[in-house]
Write a structure and sequence with these properties.
homodimer, Rossmann fold, 6-stranded mixed beta sheet, globular
């Protein structure tokens, strides 16, 4: 838990604090004394601990254990999809069932850390702009901590998620606009009311929480890394978090495999990461620092203008991710890919997963839609072990709506 | 996995097969060679296994491991409720978050075993009468196994659950009546179409799956048993399963604590277990066989007539549990209790749990409503460790409906 902040771009360091960006504009990630951490967190010690994400507490930035705000997040199943493997002639396909977290989505992980950091500091009011799942997660964790929460959501957010935020007692602001416009509302509250902002890249906790998905996949595969990670990408901090997790495990010598290829999937009608990847893959020189904890992004990245956004209201609809350049850099460095899938392909993939017993959100279904394209293009083969991330329950979107 | 069936009433044994009742009418439970099971399933071996309910596979009745139908069930969090402890002056209160199972309820456990048993035998079509959660669980597990499923539900079943059954591809029969009348529809399909009936006490798998809740609570508490289990009771096989689990752990010497007091909670307007308990507690002589694997129920138990049923459509609305006498016997033997709570008390308890970050179904909230009464009556004290079972997600019922 001894840690500092390190700029992924310029390598400047800061004492640990609740900030998200370096003065150079680069993303600040938490930098641990890894050797010290594993003095108490050995592989065998992990077996003695409950299978929640807090089993990795030495590599999470909360210092006061009694201030951890936990609802039982992490420790989600990784299930093998034998029928898909047969159908697609692939070696191994797994689904990481992130919908089995508290509040039914992977957002529980990041919010558990972010709210714990606020709880350590005695904060009274947390706030977040969100497409839905981060909002209901904040609402639940703030309730658990006895803290107030305000969430700002695009007005077309699925009704069950708005209900869920209300259920946990959050104040809700419905915005006529997209998630970055919801962000403007939260910024106002930060300035005027002293709210604590737990939006993407506003503080270091959420990426740290999400990185535990990477630790878990590695542990669940017997401290091996998969070859391919297919991830539905909006703000992209899941990708940043897992990339960081795998780097840390490599640095520790806990895994000997190369970095998995990250494949970002977005829905047609809002594909800034896909466009950034296409614009960068032939030209960008990605500088990877020798210690491999840093990336010097030279990727081309531009937000999607509002008027071009036509995709459905899901977690993938993020026209201006706070560090799109870093996401594209990770995709490039890992020799991965980024691809667009249509709403029709997502719906079809969701039906296919339902027919195999999996409750897949549109975002989770998009990863299967992406895998089908990867397989058709020969970009994954029968030598690859692939992990799809089902980030939320279908039910959260209203099943009939799908 | 070597096992047979043992009648809990008359002690007659049968080779393992898919039957639920003895010729004497007693419940058949699976009887294992416990000493043999723990040759490979030691406490230290368990630490090497994934934290799903199949970690206890030597004490589950599926013989062909490759036929296990799993979606990542079990291994749910047990979270401490410090604020409730302070408010109620209790020593320890825990919530077992069964809503974090696949399909968002504890029913996943029983259906994973039941469908695995059918999958071992090449069954093509499974069917169940249900108040909702068992139906959507069967739908998902049948889909995973490539099996057909038919579910019969009272017409007033919450819409999101009906949607969920449809999502997984089950055929749905909506019945103008209660769960036992839905059962008549399924019996017809069993006779005319050869469906396999996985209803409560129709086969031995579901109780075995549910018993893993008991194993997990014991393991999560460091191989200690809680003092009190508060459980929302409909068909009651969760109570029967956990009672069996604790007996098995005691027989193995893995726990040294006495049986927890089982408290069954039902909603006013359908309280056959509460009435059976009231009618039996002063008079019934409960025969416990010397080997403690059996109970000779002499409890008074009568189903609630349809015309007296006024409770909400939840999993607790079961006027005629297939072995109510056994449930009452377990409550009596464990020196537990059974209590009715009102719809208003349930709604109030649900709000209270929401305010602590927990997504509680009406059934789960009923356990808190029950605990409040127990505490007020002095039936739980500051010496007791209490576990509440939150059996399903609030969302499955439509949050706004609450």
């Amino acid at each position: 838990m001894k840690c500092r902040l390190l700029c992924v771009r310029c390598a400047k360091t800061y004492p640990f604090q609740l900030m998200g960006k370096c003065e150079c504009g680069g993303v600040l990630l938490v930098d641990y004394d890894l050797e010290r951490a594993v003095r108490t967190m050995s592989k065998s010690e992990l077996k003695e601990r409950p299978f929640t994400m807090w089993r990795y507490r030495e590599l999470l930035p909360v210092h006061k254990e009694e201030r951890i705000v936990s609802l039982g997040e992490g420790g989600t199943p990784l299930i093998r999809m034998h029928r898909l493997e047969e159908q697609l002639s692939l070696k191994q396909v797994w689904v990481k069932r992130e919908e089995q977290n508290p509040t039914g989505s992977f957002k529980a992980r990041g919010m558990s850390v972010a709210v714990s950091l606020l709880h350590e500091r005695g904060a009274g009011h947390a706030a977040v702009p969100s497409n839905g799942n981060a909002a209901s997660a904040l609402a639940a964790y703030a309730a658990r901590a006895g803290m107030k929460a305000t969430v700002a959501l695009p007005r077309d957010c699925p009704a069950p998620i708005i209900d869920e935020c209300r259920y946990y007692g959050a104040a809700i602001e419905l915005i006529d606009g997209l998630i970055h416009q919801a962000g403007e509302r939260i910024e106002l509250g930060v300035r005027e009311n002293g709210w604590y902002h737990v939006g993407t890249m506003k503080e270091p906790g959420r990426v740290e929480g999400k990185k535990t998905m990477g630790y878990e996949v590695a542990e669940q595969l017997g401290w091996k890394l998969p070859d391919v990670i297919v991830y539905p990408t909006g703000g992209g901090s899941g990708v940043i978090g897992m990339w960081k997790a795998f780097r840390e495990l490599q640095a520790l010598g806990w895994v000997n495999d190369p970095m998995p290829r990250f494949v970002c999937v977005q829905e047609e009608g809002c594909v800034p990461v896909v466009e950034g990847f296409a614009a960068s893959r032939d030209t960008a020189a990605i500088g990877v620092a020798a210690d491999k904890r840093r990336l010097t992004p030279r990727a081309v990245f531009r937000p999607t203008p509002n008027e071009r956004v036509t995709s459905q209201p899901t977690g993938m609809r993020v026209p201006a991710p706070p560090d799109g350049g870093l996401i594209v850099s990770i995709v490039l460095e890992s020799q991965g890919s980024a691809m667009a899938v249509s709403a029709t392909e997502i719906a079809e993939a969701q039906r296919r997963l339902a027919g195999m017993g999996v409750s897949a959100s549109p975002e989770g279904a998009a990863t299967l839609a992406g895998l089908l394209k990867l397989a058709a293009q020969g970009c994954v083969t029968d030598r690859d072990r692939v992990v799809l991330f089902n980030t939320a329950h279908a039910q959260k979107y209203g099943v009939t709506a799908m």
